[in-house]
């Protein structure tokens, strides 16, 4: 028998705001990181951040990102099966659609978005956005939407941490530039926020903890964005030697990627059942 909906009205405004901010952030990131000389220079330089974590031993660890992504998708599949058994059809369709749309959008954007040759390519082909980072986050969001009975805050924390690791491993293993992994997270944030706003979501416990995570994540994103703007301005002014640019880039990407994923996950609740008002 289908599970009873939680008798609290969903908040669509918050999710709509999340979708709008992530969409604007995605566009702004592409415009600055891909379409400007300074942005491409920062992107290329991001492949040199965290040098202490780029040895052969570390690279072997980062190779586990593929297995970890499969693990997240496997957890989402288990949650999805339970969701179907409980006849939560809207949630089941939404979660599967999110993962599928994320994977397809990543492929289409890589092939469709132009990347002009401005002299700081690092790679000669488009890698924006990162499919690994995007699908990993989408798998966690879908699991939350499915609302399995075994879902707990600690489970979301662990899965979210794995998603962050997959994103950072994509950067540290030279598979992606910094903008790629952040772009993947922002893309999923836009998709997830829009879907939650349209379909509605159930309220769950721990609203205060979610508010704290949103606040900390938002602050992390703002600080990271400020550092990125500083680095862009320094490069544009030809003053790269005046600050430790690699440290600024490393701090910026860590704060923004972690912050975006934290805010996106804190906003998500199980998708409401058809009977929810």
Largest sheet: none
What helical percentage do the residues reach? over 70%
Strand content range = under 5%
Number of helices: 10
Q: Which structural class matches the secondary elements?
A: mainly alpha
Q: Radius of gyration over alpha carbons?
A: 19 Å
What is the string of helix and strand elements?
HHHHHHHHHH
Beta strand count: 0
Give the gist of this structure.
With 277 residues, the protein is mainly α.
Polypeptide structure, described:
This protein has one domain (12-267). Helices cover 70% and strands 0% of the residues. It has ten helices and no strands. Helix 7 (153-172) runs antiparallel to helix 8.
Name some characteristics of this structure.
277 residues, mainly alpha, 0% strand, globular, disordered N terminus
